[in-house]
Amino acid sequence: MQRFYFDFFDTDDVPIPDVDGTELPSVEAAKDEAVQALIGLANDIKLNGHEKKLQFKVRDDDGRELFEVSLQLDVQPL
């Protein structure tokens, strides 16, 4: 098992580093974990304005950033 760290970024808040990490069997499993976590967080979105971006930057035990997963919500007046 490898340990992955999911640092969270939000357009409205200060970044939240993951200090504990999560053990997962592969990078693919870490990607799935990040996507599912963002979907879960999307249920609680409160818009301050017209735009919201949620993002995880995922890194390994050596601190290397492996990938990022983001979710963007835009509300445009008609």
Characterise this structure.
With 78 residues, the protein is an alpha+beta fold. It has one domain. It is 21% helix and 40% strand. The protein is elongated, with a radius of gyration of 14 Å. The mean pLDDT is 90.
The backbone outline, from C-alpha atoms, is elongated
Number of strands: 4
**Helix vs. strand class:** alpha+beta
H/E element order: EEHEE
| Strand order across the largest sheet | 2-1-3-4
Overall structural domain count: 1
Q: Output the radius of gyration.
A: 14 Å
Distance between the termini: 49 Å
- What amount of the residues lies in strands? 35-45%
Biggest sheet features = 4 strands, antiparallel
Helix count, per DSSP? Answer: 1
List the helices and strands and how they pair.
Blueprint: E1 2-10, E2 22-24, H1 27-42, E3 51-59, E4 65-74
Antiparallel strand pairs: 1-2, 1-3, 3-4
